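thought: fold this chain, then report.
action: predict
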Amino acid sequence: MADLQPLIIYSSGPAPNPYKVAFVVEELGLPWKFESLPMPDLKKEPYTNLNPNGRVPTLVDPNKDMVIWESGAIVDYLVEEYDKDAKLHYTTLKEKNATRSWQYFQVSGQGPYFGQLGWFERHHSERLPSAIERYTNEAKRIIGVIDGHLAKNDTKFLVGDKPTYADLMFIPYFKAVGKGSLMATDVDTAQWVHYTAWMKRLHDRPAVAKVAKIYDDVWEQIVAKEAGDKH
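observation:
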C-alpha cells in the first residue's frame, strides 16, 4: 500500500478514542499520521466543518475523498475499505456479528464509563468520592466481563483465537486503568488473569506495541508536567 497517501487521524493530546483508530490502521499496514489539535479548537471552525460534534477522532482519507467521525464508524469504514483479506474481521455470519457485539459494547459501555472515571478523577472541579466509586466499580465490572468471557470460552481473543478490530478498540481505555496507570490506581488488574493474558497477547503484537508506545509517551509527558507544576 505504498502508493497510498497517509490517512489523517485527528486527535487531541492523550484522548483515548483516536488511538482506537490508530491501532486498527497500524495493524492494517496503512500509512497514517496524527493531527493533534488543542481542545478548544475542536469546538470551532475549521474543525467543526469536518466533525460537527467537535470531538475526536475524525478520519480524513485523501485516497477516497472521505471524512468520517465517531470511532466506531471510522473502524467500520477501515474494515470495509481496507481489510479485504479479513485480517481483523470475520466473514462468517456468527463470528462477524459476535465481533460487532463486542465493538458496540466498547463504544457504549467501556468508553463512556471509563471516560467519566477519568473526568471525575482528573478534571472535575471538586472531588466527588461517590462518583469516583461508581465509575471505578463500573470499570472493574467491565474488566470482569472480558475476563469471564475469555475464561468461559477458553479463547485467546474476544471472538475465537484471532484478534479483531473489536479487541483493538478496547486497548486505550484499559491501558489507563489500574496500578501504575492513570485512573483507579488502587485496583490491581492482575487479579483478572484471563484479561491480563489477553492484554499481553495484544501488546506483544508489533503494530500494537508501536502505537502503544506513542500513547505512553504522550501520557508520560503530561504526568511529568503535572509533577513539575506541583513544585
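thought: worth noting. The beta strands are 7-11, 32-36, 58-61, 66-69.
final: C-alpha cells above.
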